Amino acid sequence: MLTLVATSFLAAAKPKEIKLIESTPREALKSAKSRLVVEKNSLTIVPYKNQKHTRFTIDQHFDFTGYKAMSFTLENLDKKPLRISLFITHTGRKNITKFRRTVNDITGDIYYLQPGEKREVLLNFPEPLQHPDVAKSLKLMRYTPYSREFGFHSYSADLSKVNIISFQVQHLAANSVKAEGGLRIHDLKVIPGKRVKNPAVVQMSYNEFFPFIDKYGQYKYKEWKNKVHSDADLQKAREEEEADLAAHKGATDRNKYGGWANGPKHEATGRFYFKKVDGKWWFIDPEGCLWWSHGVVRVTPSSAVTPLDGRKHYFEDMPKRGDDFEKFYYTHDSLLKPYYTARNIKETYDFSSANCYRKYGKEYKQVYGELAHRRLQSWGLNTIANSSDKDICLMSKTPYIERLEARGVPIKGIGGWWPFRDPFDPSFRQSIIDQLKDREKSLKDPYLVGLFVDNELKWGNESYLAVMMAKNPATLIGKQELVKFYRAKYNEDITALNAAWGTSFASWEALLNNTTDLPKRAHKHLEEFNDKVIEKYFSTCREVFNEYAPGVLYLGCRFSGSNRKAITIGAKYCDAISHNFYRYTIEDYDQPEGVDLPMIVGEFHFGTRDRGMFHHSLIEVANHEERGKAYEAYVRSALEHPNCVGTHWHQFSDQATTGRFDGENFNVGFTDVCDTPYYETIAGIRKVGYDMYNIRANAK
Predict the structure, then answer these.
(1) pTM for this model (two decimals)
(2) Cα–Cα distance, 576 to 598 (Å, whole number)
(3) Distance from C-alpha of 305 to C-alpha of 312, rounded to nearest angstrom
(4) Which is nearest to 203 in space by CA: 143, 126, 139?
(5) How many domains does the chain have?
(6) By the 8 A CB rule, do 274 and 282 touch?
(7) Which residues pair with 290 in a beta bridge?
(8) SS3 520
């Protein structure tokens, strides 16, 4: 009888399936930049107008002890692809602003849905980690070996203390999205049962697991196509590629610049310039041929430099001091080197250059450079895009584009990859002059297409720069200009400003010395000066180009998120607008009203995890076959767009398996860490690259 009672009690205590949409109080269902349409067993996240990023959150405590998985169905009601990031967080982590997976406090996944696609998802919960000391030691990687083993999930979150379940939705359109469609989530539930056993690699102890990277910079515990196990494999790969290059010599309708030799001719000026022909923008190359920039960023042997600080136990068979491979502790990419220095990273190793040394010998840099030009021609590419090895560019065999980054006094509080410099400060102008002078040889080179200035600056909304400047110290020249502007606007009457802004400054000096946030009411009034900041930024760049680099194209600032006003003002001074567009296509791209300029895609890519990498990339595809198809579709959409004059893939070779200075460890290369091409991707590049001028000319 006692046994029966106990059995009955245990049966009663068994967890029951939780239907989250039905059982969660309405006040715990929250949304950001969107409205929720809640039905019995589904909800729809409808974006407000012009919102690319929306969010649905269940803000409630749960104990998922005794539960094995979460299941749901995602349905894309939008006319564009969606990227959905799922977070399940435990007590203590509330601020989920960016998708940065870690090994100790988040579990979740990423899902990509095409328009109209409906997908059932089963997200298995992990069992507790057998060796949390291993997980704790995995750092400075966007995704880790554990992420790979689990399929993106990080598995140390305490699922007995869940406090947020969040779906973040990114609308993968090139421009604004309309308030229609959105994402529908059906049948969101948590399923009771025993959890799936952790993968074998995750069950390894600390001493068993480390080191997990071999001497070639590859993950040890997986096999994949073309993985290198010996130096002999490197030589075999070299021979196989030589055969491939011999069989694919490149498109036959090109001149020495990669321009359309068989197309109509225009004025030959000896430099690149822009011209609108039959309603479509084109480059015209130095020989007067129509030219479209089909390129790739960061052509360099030093693509897989990785930090060693606090992580030396990750790597096996590292060279001893005095070893022939010791030099690769010191080789680096010149563009990215300052980012390592800024983060106080003291030791690195350059796996990609080391592998090229093994593959090509002591003159590997020269061999690699010569091969890079042959590869580009064979693959149907005609541009070495920015951030590439200067020596490779100056071989004058393939047109190239360079990038400089303005320096000077930063506007405090503005984040991003590179600080936004005060354009009113003379140091801003001087930094551009100095960098152009440093490029004296390139500026005279007919193979130089043009220059970008800066990369992915944070422009914010139409008052953001001025709002931030208004709380900078009085020593900032831009702040002084701001106060001067509004003194004139309000006729020296500080009370008039206070009445309009909702402030209480005793004097103009008080405004100048203010370092605190201004009321929201003031932001609208700051839009006028925000325009002045943008105007000063672009006009200064234009003036310096006219004086120190006449005839060289100013290709913009590589927008990555901006406001339409910044684009409109920039268009007055740039020869082209440039955007880094991580999307599936750019078919929906349009420019602000009144703007009709050439547009360059400064960065895009697709990645996967079927060849040893831990992280796919910013845009995932299923495998390398699909990667080649995605490449073709993207570039075709750009060729068919009347404003687009080029696409530049980011980047030539994969990043380090264990991450670069900021932890990025993406599968983004045309080649891997051992310099072996991904031939499935190359097939897609060739397919669209060999025919690109016919596609462009015949596009409606």
Answers:
(1) 0.91
(2) 5
(3) 14
(4) 126
(5) 3
(6) yes
(7) 284
(8) helix
